[in-house]
Structures are given as C-alpha cells and as structure tokens.
Amino acid sequence: LHPVPCSDVGNLTMMAEPMQTEDDDGVFTEVVGGDDGPAPMQVEDDGAAGTANDVVTQTSLDLEAYCSNYKGRTKVARLQFIAERCPQLRLEALRLCHEELKESPDVNTFVALTSKLNEECVAQGQQPVPPVDSARIESVTHKATQQREKLEQDLKSYRRNMVKESIRIGHNELGAHYYNCGDLQQALKCYSRARDYCTSSKQVVEMCANVIKVSVEMRNWGHVRSYIAKAESAPEIAPETACMLKACAGLAHLADGQFDAAAKAFLEVPVEHAGSFPSLFSIRDIGIYGALCALATFQRDDLKHRVMQNSAFRQLLEHVPAMREAVKDFYSSRYTTCLKTLDDFRSELLLDIHLHWHVAALFKEIRNKALMQYFYPFLSVDMNRMAEAFSTTVQELEVELIALIMDGQIQARIDTDKKILCARRRDQRTHMFSKALEAGKAFETNAQAVLLRIAMQKAGFLVSIKGSAQASGDNNAAPTTTAATKG
To answer: What predicted TM-score, i.e. pTM, was given to this entire model?
Structure first.
C-alpha cells in the first residue's frame, strides 16, 4: 500500500535575536519576553492546540521506574505534573517529590509541596508527613544567601581585575546557584551575561547549552531556537552537546505543533548520547516523541527509510516496546492492532509534561493516515468492513471520511444508501487530451521565443557576451548596442 501524499506541517522558523538592555553594571542582558516568566517549579502550558485539563483516572504507569530516568528540577517538575493530572498517582508523586526536595535549596517549592502533600494525606486518610521545620528553612535560606553574596563579591573582584575567563566562570557559577534555588529568571540573566566573556567556540557552545537548559524549563521556545542556531554555528561541537541540541530542537518544534520537523530532529539524536541529559529528557522520551511524530507525518517511503531501516533509532525504540510494536504494525498495515496499542499507551502519554498538549492532534493524524492507506489500493470499500477494521461504527466512520474528502486527502465519494466508499477516478481520455493541449501551448510559446530571438539577432538588437562583459567592467562606459528584452 502507498499513502496519499499529505502536506508537511511546517518548516523551522528562525527567531529574531533577543532584545538587549544594559544593567547597572554596564553589562548587556537579554530581555526574556514581556513578563516575569513562570514561578519556580510551576508547570506552565505550552500554548499549543490541545486539551489542557485532561485528567487521567487510570494508568498502569510505574511511577518509581518512570522518575528514575530523570534528575534535578526536571524530575520534580514531571512529578508535580503527574500529581496534578492523575488522582490515582497523586499521593505517590507528591511523596517522591517531597523526598527529592528535602536537601534542595529551593525552600519555597519545598514548603508549598509539603503543604500539598499533607492535604492529600488527610484527604486519603494517610498519616501526614512532619511539618516543615522553620529552623531548618531559615538555616538553608541563610546558607543560600551567604553563598550568593560570596559569588557576587567574587564576580565584582573578577570584574575589577578584568580577567575575561574568571568573569565568565563567575557568571556561570552565579547562574547555577540561582537555578538550584529556583530563580530561573536570574539564572537566565547570569548565563546570558557570560556570552560577552567567551573567548572560544567551546565556551560559546557551553553558554548556549546553559541558556537552553533554563529556557526549556521556562517553556521559552523562542530562546531555545535562537540559542540552538548560535550553538550549531560553532565550528566544533562535542557529540554530547550535539545530542542535546537536536533533542531540544525537537522539543521546540513539538511545542509549536511542527510534528514533521520534530520527527526529523528526534530521529537525528545519536543513540549513544541520548541518555546523557537526565536533567532535560530521557532516552525513552526521544523514542516516544520521534515515533509518534513520524507516524503522524511521514509518508510510507520516509517511514521505511528513516524509521524502519534506521538501526540507531530502533535501539531507542527498544526502551519503549509499545511504540516499537505500534510502528511495526502501522508499517505492516495492521492498523487495528496499531491503533489499539496506541490507545492503551494513551494514559502514559497524557502524563508527559511536553507531549500532553499534542496527544489528541497526533492520534488524529495517525488515524487519518491509516484510513487513507487502507482505502488507497481499492476502487470501492464496504464501509461496514472498514468500520470493523478500525473498531468504530459506520456512522462515526462516515463522519471521519467526509472530513477527509472535504479536506482533499481522499479522492472518493460515499454511497450513503449502500454504505460504500467509491474512489473518484479521473477520465484518462480527458486527461490525455488536456496534456496534449498543454504540450501544444508550450511548443507554441517556445517557437515564438526562438523566432523573436532570430529576428532580433538579424536586426542587431542583441548584446554579445563579450560586449556585456566589457560593459560590466566599466560602469561609466556607454553600451555600444541596445539590449532588448527576450520573449
């Protein structure tokens, strides 16, 4: 079977350079959007089309195994997202979050999370955790303040000595401190300020990677795309960093709903480094995102060459057996099994912090492609059998087919009486006559152009190549012949 060609979702759009302002210290800092950004460790919606408040009532997700793939703030953010969306896993997610934040300097998030955990424990009749120790909170806050003041003093000393490398390291250390404390806006400013003190391409790439890490957590995809372009322009990039850039580019495309570009970016992630950044994504994420976007947008030949025959990406799919089987079933035209596998996996996809917005759109695109490929080789199809193959009713199938026909993705008509989908085939005789007329018009146009050129050459109205070269070499010299427009 061969798919009906469908339009690509879109291409990569490069963002303009961020606006810069000068701070009190005379250092130019990039302005990030028009607001203050999301609060620390607060999950924000991406703004893409989708259902924002899907609640997952039942899931077979092993939460401990799932969160073991992540580290740092990403792990906490994903657990918080699961706690908000899945009542079944809410208590367990909050407990894991609480354990993760016990030794964290981000005390604001820890206090808020402890309060939520105790409320959930009381609601489910469980023993609440001990209340927050105010003395410990004051101690952690005081220690963080002292560390920040020390880093700021060191940075001022570096500036007085005018040593670029020391100033760059000082900005990076201060940015890391703000990032660990949950102040993403200040972390982004510090990492961005290090740009003016980079003296090699390696340092520029390191600065871009730091900004991208913070921007991904802030869902600032414009910054992500801009700094990916800056990093990729460097002459040399370490393989691990190149892996991170490809994956983050895929996340930015996914957030914008550009599934085709996202699939291509995820498929280019090298498998040997796909698990090197647990603070951003896991190796399973790359396999899931890449497979879903490829199924939704790739034509059959692309799916064969870029996915089925891609040994590196097949290794990524080994970490997600459900997606591996879904891709195999789709390529083998076992659409019923493929759609059922995806539907069983849907609850886990809805609990993904980056993918949940796009699950409905991706599933719709995959189902539409399956319907088109199922019908393509036939002149007519019994809609009763087709509905049975796709586990739906004839009425619901008819609505889907009407939408595809109106959109021009299926060239067919529906016999509503007999419930038969009939292909709309063009008249080959009329088509050949049309092609003959087009060929005749093209020949007539070319013949007229040749005759006009011959006539102009006889009249001496053509500029020779040698004369054109001399005229271009001397702009002040007047041409010796008159140039005419060729028909």
So the answer is: 0.74
User: SS3 letters for 392-404?
Assistant: CCHHHHHHHHHHH
pLDDT in tens, 395-437: 998 899 989 988 888 888 888 888 888 887 666 777 788 889 9
Distance of CA 414 to the CA centre of its chain: 37
How far apart CA 382 and CA 278 sit, in angstroms, is: 49
> Which of 271, 198, 214, 272 lies closest to 248, judged by CA?
214
Residue appearing with tokens 């930015």: 252
Give the H/E segment covering residue 280: none
Distance from C-alpha of 88 to C-alpha of 143, rounded to nearest angstrom: 37
Closest C-alpha to 284, from 362, 352, 226, 234: 352
> Is residue 248 within 8 Å of residue 212, measured between CB atoms?
yes
41: left (phi over 0), alpha (psi -120 to 50) or beta: left
Q: What is the CA radius of gyration of the chain?
A: 30
Q: Name the helix (H) or strand (E) containing 171.
A: helix 164-181
Instruction: Concatenate the DSSP letters of all residues of 286-300 into one string.
Output: HHHHHHHHHHHH--H
Predicted pLDDT of residue 341: 92
> Could you report how far apart the first and last alpha carbons of the chain are, in Å?
46
What angle, 0 to 180 degrees and rounded to 10, lies between the N-to-C axes of helices 201-218 and 239-255?
30
Q: State residue 133 phi and psi, 5-degree precision.
A: -80, 110
Q: For CA atoms 205, 211, 216, 222, give the dihedral sign.
A: negative
Angle between helical axes of 259-267 and 239-255 (0-180°, round to 10):
160
- Among 50-59, 153-162, 389-398, where is mean pLDDT lowest? 50-59
Q: Counting Cβ atoms within 10 Å, is residue 454 exposed (0-12), middle (13-18) or buried (19+)? A: exposed
The residue type found at 369 is: K
Look at the block and give the residue holding tokens 């002040």. 476
| E-assigned strand segments in 212-350 | none
- 3-state class of 380 per DSSP? strand
Contact predicate 216/203, CB 8 Å = no
Report the alpha-carbon distance of residue 190 to residue 23 in Å, rounded. 12
